[in-house]
Amino acid sequence: MVRLLPVIAVALLSASPVLAQKTTKPAPAKPAAKPKPPATKPKPKTQLATISPLSHDEKNGFSVLQVAVPDSAKFIAGWKVGAGGESATTKTVANRPLFTFLIFRGCKANAQGNCDIVADFAITRPDGTINDENKGVVVWNKTAPTDPKKPYLGDGALGYGVDDEGPFGDYRVVATVTDRVAGTTLTTEQTLTIAAGKATPAKSGETKPADPAPAKPEGPDLPTEPPAK
Q1: C-alpha span between 150 and 24 (Å, rounded)
Q2: Distance from C-alpha of 158 to C-alpha of 142, rounded to nearest angstrom
Q3: 20 to 30 A from 188, CA-CA: which of 41, 82, 137, 179?
Q4: Contact 161/229 with Cβ under 8 angstroms?
Q5: What radius of gyration, in Å, describes the C-alpha atoms of the chain?
Q6: What distance in Å separates the CA atoms of residue 85 and residue 63, rounded to the nearest whole number?
Q7: Any bridge partners for residue 22, and if so which?
Q8: What pTM did the predictor assign?
């Protein structure tokens, strides 16, 4: 740690020769210099979530990033103010699904000025079996974004989780994303880890009220399908 010492003004006296019947007045002392304020340390930048190379793909100016979050509504709300990535994770527990979103940029517009992007999802379970039923998920099918270099959050999302029976372990989620106007296909993937949750049985005679349905924010549509095993 740097410690600043106080500045002390010291008057330096120099002898002047005595002339006949005449003396010279000493020059007025200069005021002591004010201490410089300590340099302010730059504020640390917000740490971004670590991005796996496999979760991003790019070709011919078209780019896609795959991200998983535990709360889709919170993520969408955060995305609107530039803080969506703070909740990104690849780990969860039973009965708490993760939602996979696709972030893209650089799609090609058709003659009507629209982009058309779809995704096929394939999920490899811990036992090696594959769930490939989620095909043709609409990522973007409307007016092309005004800024092709700016990332946009896709409309489609995939919710995935397991109940208390599992199976638990690693789930490999692969997204094959196609810009149907440009004819460009990209592939991204993430490995999601699902562990068993802690059992919290209700007390005798008590019933747990149902959670109220969260308000649907403006923005991309939320997935409505229940978590698949």
Answers
A1: 75
A2: 20
A3: 82
A4: no
A5: 32
A6: 17
A7: 19
A8: 0.66
Q: Which residue has the tokens 């779809």?
A: 118
Answer yes or no: CATH 2.60.40.3880 is held by domain 53-195.
yes
Contacts of 127 (CB under 8 A, 6+ apart): 167
pLDDT tens, 186-210? Answer: 999 999 999 998 755 444 444 444 4
Q: What would the two tokens of residue 197 be?
A: 């949750």
Look up residue 14 and give its two tokens.
């120099």
- Dump pLDDT digits (tens) for 84-98: 678 899 999 999 999
Q: Is the dihedral of CA 222, 225, 227, 229 positive or negative?
A: negative
Domain regions of the chain by residue span: 53-195
Q: Which two tokens stand for residue 22?
A: 């005449």
Report the distance separating Cα 73 and Cα 82, nearest Å. Answer: 14
Half-sphere exposure of 13 (CA within 13 A, CB side): 2
Scanning 61-148, the segments in alpha helix (DSSP H) are 72-80
Which residue carries 């699904």 as its tokens? 97
